[in-house]
């Protein structure tokens, strides 16, 4: 269960033992030891293999010469004491700045469309902007718990 920070603290409490936290981490890595996390993960994207993927207009080239040409989007989650909060962001590839975002306690369509609407309202791009997101859909929380 213990990771390098906790082992380092325990070793410091022993008289005569002087060791750095990074050395403890390096020795643990060399021995193949790692701390165990009790935190449950959350899957936010499940690809539907039966649906044809949209064409990749970006072709994995995440650079552009000017703003408002390519926007990328994604959803992540933030664990809180009350449960998960989901965050959708839209990022301008040129400046690497978040141009739109939305938070909610669900992963329904309006979470993503609210983030995109904020980006459009903030930046007012022309019709040539490419909005790129990962392939997949987000399952319900109930489906994740099974």
From TrEMBL:
Region Disordered, residue ranges: 127-146
NCBIfam families assigned to the protein according to its UniProt record, in alphabetical order: transpos_IS3 (NF033516)
Source species: Nonomuraea mangrovi
Protein's job: Involved in the transposition of the insertion sequence.
SUPFAM superfamilies reported in the protein's UniProt record: Ribonuclease H-like (SSF53098)
Pfam families: HTH_21 (PF13276), rve (PF00665)
Xref: InterPro entries: HTH-like_dom, Integrase_cat-core, RNaseH-like_sf, RNaseH_sf, Transpos_IS3, Transposase_IS3/IS150/IS904
UniProt protein name: IS3 family transposase
Lineage: Bacteria, Bacillati, Actinomycetota, Actinomycetes, Streptosporangiales
All copies of domain Integrase catalytic, residue ranges: 63-146
């Amino acid at each position: 269960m213990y990771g390098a920070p906790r082992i380092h603290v325990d070793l410091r409490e022993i008289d005569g033992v002087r060791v750095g936290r990074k050395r403890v981490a390096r020795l643990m890595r060399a021995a193949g030891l790692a701390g165990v996390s009790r935190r449950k993960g959350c899957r936010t994207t499940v690809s539907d293999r039966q649906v044809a993927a949209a064409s990749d207009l970006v072709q994995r080239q995440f650079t552009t010469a000017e703003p408002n040409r390519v926007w990328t989007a994604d959803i992540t989650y933030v664990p809180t004491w009350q449960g998960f909060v989901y965050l959708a962001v839209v990022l301008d590839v040129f400046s690497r700045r978040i141009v739109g975002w939305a938070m909610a306690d669900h992963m329904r369509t309006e979470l993503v469309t609210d983030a995109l609407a904020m980006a459009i309202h903030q930046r007012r791009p022309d019709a040539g902007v490419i909005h790129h997101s990962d392939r997949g859909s987000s399952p319900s929380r109930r489906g994740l718990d099974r």
